[in-house]
Amino acid sequence: MKDFTFTATCAIAAVLAAPALANDDLRAFSNDLFAPIPMSTPDIAGNIISRQRVDLGAMLFFDPRMSRSGLFSCQSCHNVGLGGVDGLTTSIGHGWQQGPRNSPTVYNAVFNIAQFWDGRAADLAEQAMGPVQAGVEMNNTPDRLLETLSSMEDYVAAFQEAFPGEAEPVTFQNFALAIEAFEATLTTPNSRFDQFLNGADTLNEQEIRGLQSFIDEGCAACHAGVNMGGQDYYPFGLVERPGANVLPEGDRGRFEVTRTATDDYVFRASPLRNIELTAPYFHSGVVWSLEEAVAVMGVAQLGADLSEDQIADIAAFLRTLTGEIPQVVHPVLPPSTDATPRPEPM
Amino acid sequence: MKDFTFTATCAIAAVLAAPALANDDLRAFSNDLFAPIPMSTPDIAGNIISRQRVDLGAMLFFDPRMSRSGLFSCQSCHNVGLGGVDGLTTSIGHGWQQGPRNSPTVYNAVFNIAQFWDGRAADLAEQAMGPVQAGVEMNNTPDRLLETLSSMEDYVAAFQEAFPGEAEPVTFQNFALAIEAFEATLTTPNSRFDQFLNGADTLNEQEIRGLQSFIDEGCAACHAGVNMGGQDYYPFGLVERPGANVLPEGDRGRFEVTRTATDDYVFRASPLRNIELTAPYFHSGVVWSLEEAVAVMGVAQLGADLSEDQIADIAAFLRTLTGEIPQVVHPVLPPSTDATPRPEPM
Q1: ipTM computed for the complex
Q2: Does the CB of B288 have a partner CB in chain A at under 8 Å?
Q3: Angle, nearest 10°, between helix axes B205-216 and B308-318?
Q4: pLDDT tens profile B313-331
Q5: Which of A177, A77, A184, A206 is CA-nearest to residue A136?
Q6: Contact across the interface for A276 and B335, Cβ inside 8 Å
Q7: Cα B234 to Cα B227: distance, rounded to the nearest angstrom
Q8: What single string gives the DSSP state of each residue in A220-274?
């Protein structure tokens, strides 16, 4: 009787332990492929993430006077309340022009190997210099932007505090560095998947199956690392090129940066952090459903006709990548002066 | 000698006391004309300023999906970081249309007798229903807006919490009430002038002279009360009609609301709180300098050719009306779902 009880107890324990053991294997393997978002703001080579620089960066990020029209700020297309994107197929810019590609999220962008869908900016500071000058976006010039900033003494003082010891701190480079410093704080740690990586059993059975499929089917070959993507470049349509609605022929991706034939229709693998918040998907921004996006990727990149159950499982897993959105206080911006260039909407 | 010392001391004391006494008289008179912004959120008849309702209102205020294009939110034209306005002559709306009038500030708008330049909305809730439907602004419909809100369970839950006990809380009326509740918190107490009203000597000599002129020249006849304006309607050009650049002939103001001849070119007197933050000025938004705005008002409303010194003094006084801007945390908005209407920029 005693033995039977002992044996039965052990058997039950073994059954109960089996999924946990499997989870631990999967966790160990996952920790080889991925990494949790750090709980604190990462360091950035060539920048100093001081409180003053972050605060100035927040002002610049939210100030629509950085655009020629006075309507657009960084926040317009990288909305901190909307997963760091604008939720549009492609962004609306100066004069109601529509941009060529879907706006990527600013959240965790600091962990990407490079910025933009084609990686044409090495870091967030270089990225910040792009949209303010793009005619289809903010349509401003560095000179006009610096004239705007220099016209407000509170901005000049904020640059002095953020870049101490510099004789002329109000520069386009420092504008970009301050925005980079602010954006470095826009990370979303502690997702349920990160808690899983750190040893907690936070994923349900479907999400575990989804993670297993994500690895087994090959998704993790491109979507790995701390951002589950954003680390390298791959042809969209590695196995089978999607239709022109998803992959417009006019946009050849990284080829336009490198002019190298092998970079034709090559894009940076999209980071998957907070993916449930950042529809619509792909550089073309035409796919609204996460499940549809998973199916498209399966066919185009893996040559895999994923089953509906697999797609549902993978999508459920991807929804565990939603982290804690940082609290952002809307900055109070200095008033324009007589020397501030007037908005030019036309 | 003793007497002399006594007399001299008294004389010095009298001289030193004289401006303070004058200030006290001016303060007493000012307290009859004006009132400080209350330190706490005011009550609103027909609304309940609960935490849940304010939080929901903040979400709605900042959500660009309230517009058809997905680009505009209340915040676009009433930027909490820019004195509650957009800093444009007239706002840019759907399809890059420009609105007919300058965007009024949302700060302290709760204290106005009615909303819009022509007072056509009785309160902030009624106001909130306007821009979302205006073709030139957000170009949405109540049905489409409610479809958007109902498609996200976090919004439905937030409405349930903000309007407890209601069977169908997601209504256009409740949308407006929640925004009104949030906007009621957007007050800016404790300006230097309010501190003066409350007994502190926070104004310098020029600002005191400006206050005296503001009263003596008759500005306070229309710009009185807690908001120093916003309480009644007056013809723009009471004494002398300004040029068509400042007073465009096509905009007949309150006449378009009441169809009464005496309301021709009648507008609500602009509230002057935080006026240094809200350029450009007037319903036409064509005057950028506060000094120029004061001069225009002098001629048009008072028939007074104010001297340059008087204008400088009054402008200096008006800059003491800048209050403490409340801290606004950018809300985190729920993600769209498959049932959320897609943005329609075109």
Answers
A1: 0.91
A2: yes
A3: 100
A4: 999 999 999 999 999 999 9
A5: A77
A6: yes
A7: 16
A8: GGTS-BTTTS-SSEEETTSSSPPPTTTS-TT--BTHHHH--GGGTTEEEPPP-TT
